[in-house]
Amino acid sequence: MLSEFDLIHRYFSGWESYSDGVLLGVGDDCALLKPAAGTVLAVSTDTMVAGVHFFADTAAAIIGYRALAVSVSDLAAMGAAPMAFTLSLTLPNADEIWLEAFSRGLRLAAAAFGISLVGGDTTRGPLTIGVQVIGTNPSGESLTRRGAKPEQLICVSGSLGDAGAGLRQADSLMDRSRLSLEMLRQAPDSLLARFLCPTPRLALGQLLRHYASACIDISDGLVADLAHIMKASGVAAIVESDRLPLSAALRQFNPPDITRLALAAGDDYELCFTIAASRWQALQADENFIRLSASVPVTVVGKVVAGSGVVVTGVTNAQGDCLQGDCLQGECLAPVTGYQHFAPGDINDPDQ
Amino acid sequence: MLSEFDLIHRYFSGWESYSDGVLLGVGDDCALLKPAAGTVLAVSTDTMVAGVHFFADTAAAIIGYRALAVSVSDLAAMGAAPMAFTLSLTLPNADEIWLEAFSRGLRLAAAAFGISLVGGDTTRGPLTIGVQVIGTNPSGESLTRRGAKPEQLICVSGSLGDAGAGLRQADSLMDRSRLSLEMLRQAPDSLLARFLCPTPRLALGQLLRHYASACIDISDGLVADLAHIMKASGVAAIVESDRLPLSAALRQFNPPDITRLALAAGDDYELCFTIAASRWQALQADENFIRLSASVPVTVVGKVVAGSGVVVTGVTNAQGDCLQGDCLQGECLAPVTGYQHFAPGDINDPDQ
């Protein structure tokens, strides 16, 4: 059995720095970071429990890659640039083959997203992965969930529902330990890759600092996550289900509840943001956006109105997608019923 | 069962800020922090598993208080001022009485140490507490484990072995759930309090930035933690066991292995640092130090020499404290035997 010190030393120290500003990395009581002048820090923590948040028998390289990807997605949602992360790894035992693969996947993700591992600890127990990310934003330019206003557009990046379908594919696999991170990364649009190695929308998030009024990453499903923006902003959303961006891979897989997957399955780690119509025009003319959207398109899926909650139009029982019943979680239902309580627009709101 | 959102909202949101620079706290994808200009960040993470790192049946307020105290101690060891922390709470179930008490203890600690809760998550599973702390240091003034040089003195704050004895007392208690955080905090020198609600030496750590050459907090025991300084600095330590500071409470408890507790039991969260003799003179004349040391004395326990490892003098078999056998953990033994390999001093070392 390797001791904690041996473990950290063998698998998690001596990595190169993938970001600026790391003065002292793994190995002291604290890491030391020097963010660039004029920046503020964005800080988030995520805990992923085997059997709850991921399949414990997935190839360890994929588990490592995905753990960092989904954590970094919180930075993308704030428009932040990744800087550093710490790792809290709880393991039932020190399986060196598992650790080597996990460490390799984690490091690939760190290199891909430009974020440096600067500390962590290992403990004995049921497999659990905690990742704490730190990013930086130019002062005054962070995106938050507050700021959506009536008449603004609701947009999402990429496509929705892929990861939900990918979860089903992964769930039905006989041997998830044989999946290869490298193969998945070579087919990033496959449903399995969309679930197992998602891509945080970092470049888009940073660009949106200058355009969007509010932003979130879609981890729990469009309806649930959009509801967070609506609640924080004190407004309501109308989502048109026939505008939901569905990928070719998802259409080919053609699940019977395809719309429901796009609305509520989660795990896509796309960005959902609100934007004034004039800013949307400007964004579409931005050269950086034109370049980005060639690979990651952005789709208008609805609009912000006065009131509270999230309403989805165009979903019928005939599709098996009733949103008024038990088919969405409690988190989503309450806002949907809130539709009837729309209040008149706030006359003090300058956007009205 | 409360949902994650309910839990966070009810027990961990809406706290006041106990530090400067928190722009956005709990409730978005990330917290936003603005450290003061000219500072660097100190970042650390700790995971504490019930049954491994603490007694699960301890009063929840004490568990919350202690979890933050031991994490903040890592900031003290770097000379950093606390700023913000995030919490990763894994719970077997949402016991509201437990959560209320845990939250109360955590908040008392946050107020005591001047650190703001800015985020976190809750997951279902075996009781595990992850705390990630962020502090700030004036640029270029951080204490690390690197910097100890031959001929420097080795000092420790407070007294050693108390928490080890307190652990024994706690271990033998019939009902740890009836312990009161408030009572322990009113008797901070009691052995139980030293184990269950330790005090991170924040003010001393910040003062030592101007004096010490290397520093660590004693979580795993003096010998083990001092060995980290020695390894990082490339030097060796001689500790004189008859100089170890023992408290009145520990002497009264009078465990048969009192010296071993002071050397190796850990959990005291005192600071151990190295300092040049001339700087030690200057420190003792510093008004801030005179004031601090009235309540938390600092004791010279040994000196740095060329070589590697940690040697303890004055410990005999007659005391039942043999340090060459199995009575210390493997972490400590190797360095002790390393004593024979002392090399001549480095002639390029300006302190020689």
Layout of helices and strands, plus pairs?
2 copies of one chain form a homodimer.
Chain A: H1 4-12, E1 22-24, E2 31-33, E3 39-49, H2 60-78, E4 81-91, H3 96-113, E5 116-124, E6 128-138, E7 153-157, H4 162-172, H5 181-186, H6 191-196, H7 202-208, E8 214-217, H8 222-233, E9 236-240, H9 248-253, H10 258-264, E10 271-275, H11 277-285, H12 287-295, E11 298-305, E12 309-313, H13 330-337
Task: Describe, in short, the structure shown.
Two copies of one chain form a homodimer. Chain A is of the alpha+beta class.
What does this structure look like?
The structure is a homodimer of 352-residue chains. Helix content of chain A is 36%, strand content 23%. By secondary structure, chain A is α+β, with helices and mostly antiparallel strands. The termini of chain A are far apart. Chains A and B meet through strand 2, strand 3, helix 2, strand 4 and strand 5 of A and strand 2, strand 3, helix 2, strand 4 and strand 5 of B.
Please tell me the overall pLDDT of chain A: 87
Percent strand of chain A:
15-25%
Shape of chain A: globular
* Oligomeric state of shown chains: homodimer
Number of helices of chain A: 13
Tag the structure with descriptive keywords.
homodimer; 352 residues; alpha+beta; 4-stranded mixed β-sheet; 13 helices; 23% strand; disordered C terminus
